[in-house]
Amino acid sequence: MSVPTSLEAAVARDRRLVMAAIVVLTALSWAYLVSMARDMGGGMNAGMAMPMGPAAWTSGYAAMMLVMWVVMMAGMMLPSAMPMILTVATIGRRRRARGQPHVATAVFVAGYLIAWGGFSVAATAAQWGLEQAALLSPMMVSTSPVFGGLLLIAAGLYQVTPLKHACLRHCRSPFDFVLNRWCDGAAGALRMGVEHGLYCLGCCWVAMVLLFVFGVMNLLWIAALAILVLLEKVVPGGHRIAWAFGGLMVGGGVWMLAS
Hints:
Elements: H1 6-40, H2 59-97, H3 105-132, H4 145-158, H5 162-172, H6 174-181, H7 185-209, H8 211-214, H9 219-234, H10 238-258
């Protein structure tokens, strides 16, 4: 058995620390969502209940919804981004050991979350618009089978588009991404994080939009969609999983429209 070098030991230690940090951030995100759902009366089988009718969209309420979306995206997306984050951490440690410019893993993660923060702003605005149009109930669930069915069909069709699979290939190839897009320094790390987040967004945004069908605070569906994203990105043959789920989404949409 070979004895690990000091560099290999440092790389292994960094990877363990990064994995622990992602697990902690994900756990805290889910704890917040569970607490919020319980406080609002949602729980595991419903959306976030508003028993007194639609909430007034004050600046405070809008800020609360934005925080909810940001935390939700972190809890759903960070686990699937772990291979890329670990790759950045490993290469960064090796470059630092050789005295070469490197990047901070935390800054890369911050850039990744900035990209999903932009989506969270758009999702909050969409939630407000759908509530004003009476397409979303006070429980944050679609009120229209036609709207829900069409959204499911659109999401399913997107699963087989070239754009979806181009973004998915980038998400599934961390070494290819860092070798072709590596940028040194804090600004470079932030840029790489944002760029990877945008690829991830292009791969997964439609799945997130499905929360408007199943319930924005339906924890079972949040977990199911997070698992779908994870399987697409890390399991061999993830593109086939994307096609299969796309077919299920189209079938579900057709069933919703027919019923």
